[in-house]
Give the backbone structure.
Amino acid sequence: LDAPLFSGLPGDIDVSFEFFPPKSEKMEAQLWASIEELAPLDPSFVSVTYGAGGSTRERTHRTVARIVEEAKLPAAAHLTCVDASKTEIREIAERYWEAGVRHIVALRGDPPDSARKFAPHPDGFASAAELVAGLREVADFEISVAAYPETHPQADCPASDLDNLKRKLDAGATRAITQFFFAPDTFFRFRDAARRHGIEAPIVPGILPVTNVARAREFAGLCGAAIPDWMDGLFEGLDRRPAARQLVAATLAAELCRRLYAGGVREYHFYTLNRADLSYAICHMLGRRPRGEADG
Ligand code: FAD
């Protein structure tokens, strides 16, 4: 393995953490405990997802505003085009700007019923690229967009998906965050193809520490990511051993991150699923230490 050992990793990385808006008081407590635990790692930003069909519009707003106000962290709000007119989207974006939010993750989104195909609102934005352009007219947001190392399931072909990514960046986005993936080569091939396609913006790998392969497979099926068969084998027999499952999950994700580091990656986005432990452990193994403790 020509990657440096964990002991040699200096933590010279940027990290960001993704959360989803909580549905209950218990989930809210879990979310805030996780944010508190991860905040000392000094993330470049933390982001909050937007539920299918805009179902979490208010909860996403409340969560992002609270992150800015109370946690004093740079927050990014995910925003989609689903079931909203351009005017509604602009109003939402204006409210974010007023609340001190300066970063939007701009997405097309999917219909709430996953069997349906996306159809734009009659007065809405038809794609993430259009949404990016619309947001640029509202305020000077930093804008991130989605990228798909294994190609978005609705794309005609990998090249047309890269054309689309380029359109989103040309429209004013400055960073692409990838769908999750499990093999470093998947990322490197995609990054190389994107560069050949004239895409120069940072492409940040989205890291999903998987503890439940069956659930991950269900989700992956919807979003065009492949769960390798060998992962099933690794989790086999651990159904009733949650602690062992956590260790396996952290080891796998940390190993993926280590190999990405060896290939030049210095920016990571973690899909935390509102839990801090795995993301914290992986950052730690990459050499990341809490603010003020770097030398301790
Ligand atoms: P787009 O970039 O618009 O692309 C959608 C599809 O259309 C692609 O196949 C693209 O190639 C094709 N396409 C677009 N324009 C054209 C064109 N002019 N010609 C030909 N083909 C075209 N979903 C949520 O609901 N809420 C979230 O908070 C959320 N967060 C996400 C965060 C990340 C980092 C990622 C990777 C995904 C997230 N998603 C979220 C999922 C996302 O909404 C879906 O994957 C959705 O199906 C596509 O969104 P997009 O922004 O990539 O769309």
Observations:
- Strands lie at 14-19, 45-48, 75-80, 103-107, 142-147, 175-180, 203-207, 267-271.
- The first helix runs from residue 25 to 38.
- The radius of gyration is 19 Å.
